């Protein structure tokens, strides 16, 4: 690892096994130092973020990659709960979804999503987008420090 390179914790919230595997592979190929944890729905995401049940030893993510359309609890509900929780509302969230509906985009930004990205269908473009997201959040952005409460 380079001297000035930081390691960030990423929580990937994605119900599609294929999309999750592709995202993990793209992040790995990006050669940035990330620890990526994957959960398959919004309920598990909230349990992870609150360190409940199987996730009591989970690390606090520096960044969340969030799908919108998932079973049990969708990404919109995850955003709502996060933004109403003092300990979670500062964690940056990148919505990464197949939906290009104006309603979903407006609602996500209204719930304080930091970015909204429509997943490219082309595999090469998908890898490029994921790597750019990772580069932006690891190399360019100042992430909020962990809370000390």
Describe this entry's structure for a reader.
The mean pLDDT is 91. The termini are far apart. The chain has a five-stranded parallel beta sheet with strand order 2-1-3-4-5, sandwiched between helices. The protein has one domain: 3-Layer(aba) Sandwich (Rossmann fold). It contains five helices and five strands. The protein is of the alpha/beta class.
Question: Main traits of this protein?
Answer:
Rossmann fold; alpha/beta; 149 residues; 5 helices; 5 strands; Sig_transdc_resp-reg_receiver; 5-stranded parallel β-sheet
What is the fold's blueprint, element by element?
Layout: E1 8-13, H1 17-29, E2 34-39, H2 42-50, E3 63-66, H3 75-83, E4 93-97, H4 102-110, E5 115-118, H5 123-140
Parallel strand pairs: 1-2, 1-3, 3-4, 4-5
Helix pairs in contact: 1-5, 2-3
CA(first)-CA(last) distance: 30 Å
- Shape, per Cα inertia axes: globular
Work out the radius of gyration: 14 Å
Number of helices: 5
Low-confidence regions: none
CATH fold title: Rossmann fold
CATH class category name: Alpha Beta
Query: How many separate domains?
Result: 1
Strand line-up in the sheet with most strands: 2-1-3-4-5
Q: Helix amount, in percent?
A: 25-40%
Class derived from helix and strand content: alpha/beta
**Overall pLDDT confidence:** 91
Question: How many β-strands, per DSSP?
Answer: 5
User: N-to-C SSE series?
Assistant: EHEHEHEHEH
Please describe the biggest sheet, giving its number of strands, its sense, and whether it closes into a barrel. Answer: 5 strands, parallel
CATH superfamily: Response regulator
Strand proportion, as a percent range, falls in: 15-25%
CATH architecture call: 3-Layer(aba) Sandwich
Protein name: Response regulator rcp1
Pfam family, one: Response_reg
Keywords: Phosphoprotein
Domain Response regulatory: 9-134
